[in-house]
Amino acid sequence: MSNELSNQPDLNGAHNAASSQPDGATRLEHLVDEKAFAEFLKKNYPREAAVYQRAGMNRRSFLKLMGASLAMSGLGLTGCSAFAPNEEILPYARMPENLVPGKPLFFATSMPLGGYANGMLLETHEGRPTRVEGNPRHPASLGSISAVLQAAILDLYNPVRSIRVQNQGTPTTWDAFVAALDEALPSDGAGVRILTETITSPTLARQITAVQERLPQAQWHQYEPINRDAALAGANLAFGEPVSTVYRFDEAEVVVSLDADFLMDMPGSVRYARDFASGRRVRADNPTMNRLYVIEGGFSVTGAAADHRLPLRPAQIENFARALAAALGVSGVSAPSDTLWSGEWFDALVADLQASQGRSLVVPGDGQTPAVHALAHAINAALGAVGTTLNYLPPLEANPVIQSDDLATLVSDMAAGNVQVLIILNGNPVYNAPVDLDFAGALAQVPFSAHLSLYLNETSEVTTWHVPGTHFIEEWGDALAFDGTASLLQPPIGPLYETVHSGSQMLALLAGDDRTAYEMLQETWLSQLGEAGWRRALHDGTIADSAPAPITPSLQSLNLGAAPSADGLDVLFRVDPAIYDGRFNQISWLQELPDPLTKITWDNALMVSPATAERLGLVEEQLAEVSLGGNVLAIPVFVLAGMPDDTLATYLGYGGGLSADLDAGLAFNAYQLLPNGLTRFFSGASVENTGRGYNLAQSRVPNFDENLWEADDRRPVVSATLAAFQTDPDGIYKPKYEDPASILPDFLYEDNAWGMTIDLTSCIGCNACVIACQMENSIPTVGKDEVARGRDMSWIRVDPYEIPDGDETRRAFQPVPCMHCEKAPCEIVCPVQATVHDHEGLNLMIYNRCVGTRYCSANCPYNVRRFNYLKYVDEAPEMEEWRNPNVTVRVEGVMEKCTYCVQRIVAANIEASKDNRPIRDGEVTPACASACPTQAIIFGNINDPEAAVSKTKAEPHEYKLLAELNVKPRTSYLAKLYNPNEELYESGQDEE
Amino acid sequence: MSQMFTPGTNTLARLSLFIGLLFVVIIVGAILIWDNSPLGNARAGIAVAQPVRFSHELHSGALNIDCQYCHWTAEESDYGGIPDTHVCMSCHSQIAIYSELLEPVRTSYATGERIPWQKVHDLAEHVYYNHSVHISKGFACETCHGPVTDMPLVWQAETMTMNWCLDCHQAPEKYVRPLDEVYTFGYEPPIDQAELGPILVEANNIDVDGLSNCSVCHR
What we know:
The complex is a heterodimer.
Chain A: H1 2-6, H2 9-18, H3 24-33, H4 35-44, H5 46-53, H6 59-75, E1 88-89, E2 105-113, E3 116-125, E4 128-134, H7 147-151, H8 153-157, E5 165-167, E6 170-172, H9 174-184, E7 192-196, H10 202-214, E8 219-222, H11 229-239, E9 244-247, E10 254-258, H12 269-278, E11 291-296, H13 301-304, E12 308-311, H14 317-327, H15 343-355, E13 360-364, H16 370-382, E14 390-393, H17 403-415, E15 421-425, H18 429-432, H19 439-443, E16 448-453, H20 458-462, E17 465-468, E18 477-480, E19 486-489, H21 503-511, H22 517-540, E20 569-574, H23 588-592, E21 600-601, E22 606-608, H24 610-616, E23 622-628, E24 631-639, E25 647-651, H25 660-663, E26 681-693, E27 697-698, H26 707-710, E28 719-721, H27 722-727, E29 754-759, H28 768-776, H29 784-788, E30 797-805, E31 808-816, H30 825-829, E32 835-837, E33 843-845, H31 855-858, E34 866-867, H32 877-880, E35 895-896, H33 902-914, H34 927-931, E36 937-941, H35 948-953, E37 958-959, E38 971-974, E39 976-978
Parallel strand pairs in A: 7-8, 7-15, 10-11, 10-13, 11-12, 15-16, 16-17, 20-25, 22-24, 28-39, 29-38
Antiparallel strand pairs in A: 2-3, 3-4, 5-6, 5-17, 9-14, 18-19, 20-26, 21-27, 23-24, 23-26, 29-36, 30-31, 32-33, 34-35, 37-38
Chain B: H1 8-36, H2 56-62, H3 67-70, H4 85-92, H5 103-111, E1 117-118, H6 131-136, H7 141-145, H8 162-170, H9 193-203
Helix pairs in contact in B: 4-5
């Protein structure tokens, strides 16, 4: 225990404070007095902490008692169930239909994000949602799901969720709110404003219309920081009308991204990633692959997936788009005179696009200027993309507005005293409205303001009323998917708290409608679908064939005006790959999820290129003060190779919730810099190094040793060009591997032999597998300090690699779960046989045998074993609800690691065994493989030659990580293949 | 100065080594014996008081109601399953409707409050047991739960230690029955079990090799 004590920094402080007193006993008493000690106890020894906290407990007797109880737990007489407390079994009074206790039920629902529906299946155990899977019937999912969408389930159970209606900070009741609202509402609705996030839901839109019918002068505004203003303005510019664009990456052979992170940060990006990867599934019998060019102002996973990437400061991207449009013959556009990019690169891109007429696609980024969007529309028309690689739909938003203008109008009305009643449904404008609007200041002028939200956040603290909101899992509703397919929100569970209310209820209250959300949803759909169709829609989670038919808007002549001029430095505000716009900053899984490229957890950072950092004197892990438009933000610097020069990139969403910067008394809240505008980048910034240090916690960064790529045998990622693969599939470099005799026993695998293949060409590093694993296996988070000590618990990590390749640096992501070695080095060193081999080749971890010697982890060449140094598991009763009931909860002192989701294997085994048949291929899918948006992870029985996994293991570009160790890993990889343009790729560049 | 150590000291030293070793062996042995004995599992053999004095002796013994009438999930799921109040009331809305003993059941039926049955068989939390696969492979209720038809209140009939589980997992032929005898109480094998067992293991498709893997019960 003394070891653990010394690991607590607060406690060390307590030690030092007490050490001036020589008497040992006094020192101990000082320890117990400390609040830090109480917290330490609560976290690591909750049972003892309860004893300590009992009133009147003598400190000395507590220490005595605690010593005894720890000693007893050390004895570990697990067989003494004589002392186990009696447990109750509480069967239902009336068993719900279709429920078999012990068997999960799945419900189809959708999660609206940015207004657009994302289909998902919720796994529930006896009514309790424990897990999110993709919905194979939903167009935005097709069975895959992203990290953010999965982790959103944690908000449902978060113990800090708001559950009380508040008036000026004082708890009150919903009835009091209703009465107060009734009194405040003018009968004609003058001065009544409703502020929502983006709404695509037909039902909510109808409800808002109903409110406006009852209160004719009431106005509706929409704002969320991750909006599609530029896309909307760009469509207006190009077509004179709003349209929605749906891309068909599966049809495209050449894709150009103009600062678009379509693999992560666009409505429908899960589907886009899946479609994009379907064009890159290179096999010996199908050696073809699409090609991706990315021109970007930051560094995104889309950029990392590119075959050719051009980092360009964000303000220059419109110039690039103009040059591209001019080169492709778009009328009315002239090429800019001076360019920052290589002419050779540009010409090769143009030639490639022209050569693939009708099979090419240009995608503009949502953070770029409207002109870039308009130019992309014109370029796509010139390339014959419309109707083949993209479709236009009528606008999907119920009321497409330029949200930054809409919010500005609202704020100026508020500041002028024209707003009497402001109802804010979700969102957090005080936190995330552009800083130059001063939303908080204007809000102070509104006599009656109410905020509906899941948490008590920055906005609910200053509105006069706060109403606790429902989680989307507790709501009935609807929303449109990225392609216009109507999707239903179906709650598998009622609201966890009786005091929470939904946006639909608030709107019904304003409209004087006493129907429930369910009744209103039925009103929208039941008459259209009929009873059978409605049931079908609930089962599927989507309404079949409800997507609008594609339209063909006519292109106007472009009137673009001047291109933005780049002065000073550009600041790029990026959507956080984990906590999105900050709305998920209360979710510990996402806060601890490493950034795909920087691997930073829990914190925001200012990403700059090495050259810019050097020029401006910026130092990694030191705070820099960024000034933009008179606002200043101090933020730690991270030097990221591959960033364009003169660009400062940062993520939105930190400085709130669980973000680690708050603990340090700082807030790396990029909204404090964000001006109002259509774009997500702004020029004219300056930056200064303050010299103050700030530690960033990176999670397991692989060694970026350039020699790694020279020394052939140790290369962790095997890469080659598609051309090389096409010429000689067997000739691509693979680590040398012989099969010498081993001192370890041979096992016979007669029935099933489980194995996994990970296709590095498909993997985009999106981290969906990491969260899927965390949710399936109930993996705890450990906090920033522990991550910094290298103690994060994630069973699968995604290593980013930089691979030097001639002029270009290529990026690869390598997911590393347990390799399930056939000659496992961990097994032979365990003194208590806690990690053993089974007859299907699984390398098992037996928690109740483990005594925590950590020999196995020391002997693991892949660094995939995780040790519970402390009691990381969160014992809040709410947080116990999401845990997978089929996985053991691990305590401190126990080793754990990837099991290939053994609980799923055993469950499939039992079902197959009951039917007296072998397990079918595809019947067992580990959580990581089932979530993967790009289907990069293939799992199955390698004894079955027809299984998908066996076919991938037979591919010529299959290789094993650290094969020379001869541990015979069951997890292997398909080499990372690139498809560079031959014009830009000299033959000598390839290292064959 | 006289000798500090007498010749007998050597013997004493050797003896104390031996006694020390013996002491360790006794302690370890005692723990192991305790751990695997009904004593260490004090639940075994003790009837557990229940909120409703439900008698298996009456229902499944005298009245001969099939196990599955109430415990239907045992064939489908991990859990044997305790019936919901509606199952009780499917008979007791007609039979013994004024019985005082059934008051908690009627209350539960009326209010929807759950009946707090006391757990009798409580496996350790890191053990995952599946009823359905055992039943489908010919392992009887009686084999683990004992003579339930003779129990006025149910008690745990076996120790339910890992050692006890492995006894069968390593040699299922000792306990396997024909599939139509799994719900039978008081079953006697028609021929010698030593002869019948291996035949049934084959017939019921039991994969004996995999049964001793840790992952079968621990995840």
